[in-house]
Amino acid sequence: MSTHPQHAVTADPDVERFAAIDDLVWFDDMGWEEVVSHARAVPHRWAVTAAGGDDGSPYRGIAGAFEMELTVPGAPGAEPTQLPVSGLTWVGVHPDHRRTGVLTTLMDAHLSWCREQGLALAALHASDVTIYGRFGYAVASTAGEISLGHGATFDAPGVSTEGITTSMHDLSDEHVLARVHAAHRALAAGRVGSVTRTLELATRVYTDPASRLRGTERRRVVIAARDGRDVGYAILRRRPKWEDGRSAATLDCDEWAWADSAAQLALARRLTSVDLVTRTSVRVTADDALLWWCGGPRTVVHKTGDELWLRVLDLPAALPARGWSADCDVVLEVRDGLFEDQAGRWRVTARDGRAEVTRTDDPADLGLDVGVLGATYLGGRRLAALARQGLVEVHDPAALRALDTALATPTLPVPPVSF
């Protein structure tokens, strides 16, 4: 990759000028001091200036990154694994410098920095799904939002919530937030697709100044506990509304996690029984038990969207770092338009849940872009389905079946926290 000749990058930008571009690009209703405070908390920041030097004019673009951990599939019978990732965020291009190579310059800086740090993966949430594919990212997980009516019933035979208690708390209480953060980290370790964040980031994400409430209450949390241990939590906000003298309030749960089916069921029952709330929205995967406890997709309002995007930065390190569901021996012809050292032929040999990746001159069984490896990394998308999309050149159908099976996971990856 090479930086556009019109632009230069600074890795130590002025915080207020950095924040000013975010404020301009995203036109949120946060107060200025809050924008600056949030910008200051981003640990890694980049800004684009003119190639001839920084003359003090507004930055042409900005990007930031958080240090996080991603939970990836383990080998059969083993626990999932957590890997360090860089979570790209705060990406914005000044309106006066659109389509001049600013974004390419920012992505060059960020991805090159990730590789210098020895990271095998980078992750992001995409505000625009048309942008990041050209930089080697791909959608690795999806989730749906379902809306449930008050008092929804759940047909969950064999799942007992006996011994589980639920309690509601104000998330602005620092002791409650610390408790939820501890549960977040503990539960994320066992949930493929989860991304863990720092307590500082959690505090900023869930701080609710008056300027951001937008007709909702401040955030609260329902915590599920069993035998003195927290086994689940659900972060929520209620939006008050009255129609003809009756409450039509709604409840949005934008983050929840649980240790087992019983904890999830206990949380679901609590969320759908809150007084004055007529509808409750939660996020689920396509294979989520809740979707079927409430009668299946036809019984709920359901919409699906992309969640985590992944970029493989160190192919021979990334593929062995996750578990493999079956044995395979496949030669891949990989295309990577940004990093030449990742392109070419690689032999992927998986045995007993672990894989080795080595260079080879043998003929390729399959050809694909590096983005396909990111798409299938968590088990959220099947290689065979990507082949049907035309994203995999299949020279040996048996190799496609073998690699598709080896990459598959027992469950779909869960939606990660926002960052």
Which tags fit this structure?
419 residues; alpha+beta; Aminopeptidase; Nonspecific Lipid-transfer Protein, Chain A; 3 domains; eight-stranded mixed beta sheet; seven-stranded mixed beta sheet; 25% helix
Topology:
Layout: E1 7-10, H1 15-26, H2 32-40, E2 44-50, E3 61-72, E4 81-93, H3 102-116, E5 121-124, E6 138-139, E7 142-149, E8 164-170, H4 174-188, E9 195-196, H5 199-205, E10 220-226, E11 229-239, E12 242-243, E13 246-247, E14 249-258, H6 261-271, E15 277-284, H7 289-293, E16 301-306, E17 309-312, H8 315-321, E18 328-335, E19 344-351, E20 354-359, E21 366-369, H9 370-376, H10 383-388, E22 392-394, H11 397-407
Parallel strand pairs: 4-5, 14-15, 18-21
Antiparallel strand pairs: 1-2, 2-3, 3-4, 3-9, 5-17, 6-17, 7-15, 7-16, 8-10, 10-11, 11-14, 12-13, 18-19, 19-20, 21-22
Can you put this structure into words, describing what you see?
By secondary structure, the protein is an alpha+beta fold. The protein has three domains: 7-119, Gcn5-related N-acetyltransferase (GNAT) (Aminopeptidase, 3-Layer(aba) Sandwich); 143-305, Aminopeptidase (3-Layer(aba) Sandwich); 315-369 and 381-407, SCP2 sterol-binding domain (Nonspecific Lipid-transfer Protein, Chain A). The protein is 25% helix and 33% strand. The chain has helices at residues 15-26, 32-40, 102-116, 174-188, 199-205, 261-271, 289-293, 315-321, 370-376, 383-388, 397-407; strands at 7-10, 44-50, 61-72, 81-93, 121-124, 138-139, 142-149, 164-170, 195-196, 220-226, 229-239, 242-243, 246-247, 249-258, 277-284, 301-306, 309-312, 328-335, 344-351, 354-359, 366-369, 392-394. The strands form four sheets. Strands 1, 2, 3, 4, 5, 6, 9 and 17 form an eight-stranded mixed sheet that branches. The protein has a seven-stranded mixed sheet with strand order 8-10-11-14-15-7-16, with helices on both faces. The longest helix has 15 residues, at 102-116. The protein starts with 6 loop residues before the first strand and ends in a 12-residue tail after the last helix. The mean pLDDT is 95.
